[in-house]
Specification:
This protein has 154 residues and is mainly alpha-helical. It is 56% helix and 6% strand. It has helices at residues 2-19, 44-55, 60-72, 74-88, 101-114, 117-126, 129-132, and strands at 139-142, 149-153. The model has no long low-confidence stretch (mean pLDDT 85).
Length: 154
């Protein structure tokens, strides 16, 4: 019984250590030396296969196509940029979940975090979902104080 408790504590400690580092850092869909263009020579059959592969979890070609569309089509790029800027320029509102002092303090803490310069980068990265259908963001936490604080977004 004592050995099982130690194993569970050791396993929990290992899991916590895994979570204290960056797991989903920034990556690029396209490679510097390239695998070629997805959009060049795109046929209805290739597009159907690309979308089927994306639905099955292989999203590399789909995300590459989304980037190429944004780069190649000025109108599409302009529409995406307009939508992203419209959302990013909205005023941020934080409403406390109650009248008690704890709820008020939580609302103030959240508002302070949202005013940090890095928060705008998080919003911009999240808005990449407009063209691709989803966006992945990771919050790196500073756990040295009593309250955990975001130290970086990726």
């Amino acid at each position: 019984m004592v050995k099982m408790v130690r194993n569970k504590k050791s396993q929990k400690k290992q899991e916590t250590q895994k979570l204290s580092g960056e797991l989903a850092g920034p990556t690029a869909v396209r490679h510097l030396w390239g695998r070629g263009s997805v959009a060049s020579g795109l046929t209805p059959q290739r597009l159907a296969n690309l979308l089927k592969s994306a639905a099955e979890g292989d999203t590399e070609a789909y995300l590459t196509l989304a980037e190429e569309m944004e780069e190649r089509d000025p109108h599409y790029s302009s529409v995406l940029r307009t939508r992203k800027m419209a959302v990013a320029s909205l005023p941020v509102t934080v409403v406390a979940g109650g009248e008690d002092s704890r709820a008020q303090q939580c609302a103030q803490d959240i508002h302070r975090l949202m005013e940090a310069p890095d928060f705008g980068d998080l919003v911009d990265n999240a808005l990449d979902a407009l063209g691709k259908g989803y966006s992945v963001n990771e919050i790196m936490w500073d756990r040295t104080g009593v309250k955990w604080e975001p130290k970086a977004y990726s």
